[in-house]
Amino acid sequence: MTSLEKSIAYYNTADDVENLNAIFRKVYQYMALGLILTALTAYFTAASPAMIRLFYSSPAPLAIVAIVEVVLVLALRVMLEKISTSTALIMFAIYSVLNGVLCSSILLVYTQESVFTAFLSTATMFGAMSLYGLYTKRDLSSMGSFLRMGLFGLLAALVINLFLASSAMDFYISIFGVIIFAGLTAYDTAMIKELAMNSDSSNETLTGRLAIVGALELYLDFINMFIYLVRIMGKFRDR
């Protein structure tokens, strides 16, 4: 448990429902902002010959973007309690833009129709799983360790398949990836709910940080689920 989690665990307000709704409105608003920035960046990168030449002329530019992404999201997690909410939100926005550059490859490889279909499928699955995590009375905390082990297994399978280059294995990895991130959507939503219901709604800095953490977690769940669904449902562009 982080110090942020510990600090809000001691609060218990009588307006739990109102507090919960207020925090989740921010969570979904920030998440939507991130997705919009990612989608717009991906579209304009894929539509611009100059941007394509810049990022796809060699592997180095995209590798640099990926490294900066990792550093940025780690810095956001580590520094969250030391920076202002507005700074954290800016860092999240920058991360979303950089992720859009990486996701532009999807628009270059797959048809727009299949990408749109995968997006709608992702939105439907994400909405259903997030609502489940929000309203279920079951304790989903036990899912955490299982899903984390599944995530490590997924990463290991991806690395192994880099050497095997098996299309069949890639298909099953993608199905497993969808299942893992669908489960994480429900789990993360439930964890955000638990933290929100024990937070001090009068502390705007605290609730703002919680909203950004929640938005980042759900954003990552959505993006990863979308990527794996595209790999399953996507139709390649004509060469």
- Give the N-to-C terminal Cα separation: 50 Å
Name the shape in a single word: globular
Helix content: over 70%
Query: Number of helical runs?
Result: 9
Major sheet: none
Mean pLDDT: 89
How are helices and strands ordered from N to C? Answer: HHHHHHHHH
Number of strands: 0
Which band does the percent of strand residues land in?
under 5%
Keywords:
single chain; 9 helices; 239 residues; 0% strand; disordered N terminus; mainly alpha
Task: Provide structural commentary.
There is one protein chain. The chain is mostly helical and 239 residues long. The chain is 83% helix and 0% strand. Helix 2 (16-47) packs across helix 9. The protein starts with a helix and ends in a 6-residue tail after the last helix. Residues 1-14 have low confidence and may be disordered.
Summarize the structure.
The chain is built from nine helices and no strands. With 239 residues, it is mainly α. The longest helix has 32 residues, at 16-47.
